[in-house]
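Weekly modeling sync, notes
Attendees: AB, CL, MP (scribe)

Item 1: holo prediction request
CL wants a bound-state model with 3-hydroxy-3-methylglutaryl-coenzyme A before deciding which constructs to order. AB pointed out that an apo prediction alone won't tell us much about the pocket. Agreed to run with the ligand included and paste results into these notes for async review.

Input as submitted:
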Amino acid sequence: MNFPSSVKIVEVGPRDGLQNEKQPIAVADKVALVNALSNAGLKFIEAGSFVNPKWVPQMAGSEEVFAGIARKAGVSYAALTPNMVGFERAIAAGADEVAIFAAASEAFSQKNINCSIEESIERFAPILTAARAQNIPVRGYVSCIAGCPYEGDIAPSKVAEVSDILFQAGCYEISLGDTIGTGTPANIERVIELTNKKVPLEKLALHAHDTYGQAIANIYRAFQMGVSVFDSSVAGLGGCPYAKGASGNVATEDVIYLLNGLGIAHGVDLQAVITAGKNICASLGRVSQSKVARALSSEKPGNCT
Ligand SMILES: CC(C)(COP(=O)([O-])OP(=O)([O-])OC[C@H]1O[C@@H](n2cnc3c(N)ncnc32)[C@H](O)[C@@H]1OP(=O)([O-])[O-])[C@@H](O)C(=O)NCCC(=O)NCCSC(=O)C[C@@](C)(O)CC(=O)[O-]
């Protein structure tokens, strides 16, 4: 099988993972998580989000998170920015790169960022201009690539269309978000095929959620097709506040285990990520959603009594 020879893992736990938590999370816990992930060898970490704190209260302390982290050379600390207010906050906080986020579903766009897809593209334009002037890379998300919590199935052609617009506008990478995890290898394949007619494969990422247990299968299929960038979240933390029922992102530990099995270089210390996951789960009082972390942490592997 001709897989890409290396892989980029984008760790979204501190942002996508924590944004959906119900209980307050101390800035110190967020900072410790980001530091543990960079120490584990992760090179791209979404450390926060500069959205309206009234919409997503868990991301309100993102300035403090960026101020508190121990920056590691060679690590890119990214932030989500929905508009120019968010972009300016992110730059002031010292984000190395930003991400804008559109959707392939009109209803999701309205619920998530309070505007239509077209209006969102207009809002992103000044971010792209300002980012270019300041040499800040901009990543583009397209949510609901397989299904939408409000509209149901989404046409792959719509995903290709929105991806094309973001790529043409200057995003260096397009992350295809299976927001509610309804995708299966067959429809993820179709989405990638069509989107690849507009955006080169090496500029595409898959952002898989594991709601239906399909995330690793979807990543494997995308990887077979030549996609080499995968978003994941330590301990499988996450969900989306505007996608009811969306469970966590695919766990970083599970992606690393898959890559180890395939003999693909990734530069990340699995055990260190498991420890980072254990610590944040202890702070949150929740159980890791990573099957690999759970299997490797159990005292008697394979014992199912
Ligand atoms: C986009 C907005 C801001 C529009 O929200 P809006 O209410 O339409 O904004 P507005 O421009 O009308 O402004 C209203 C107020 O918000 C303030 N405001 C405006 N912008 C900001 C900002 N950046 N930071 C701080 N404050 C801000 C603004 O200053 C004003 O304050 P006021 O005058 O009333 O005092 C809002 O809808 C929002 O913040 N949405 C964020 C939703 C969100 O974060 N969703 C989760 C992330 S997306 C996701 O998880 C999917 C993804 C990426 O992971 C991929 C996948 O899985 O699919």
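Recorded for review: Residues 301-305 have pLDDT under 50 and may be disordered.
Action items: CL to compare against the apo run; MP to circulate these notes.
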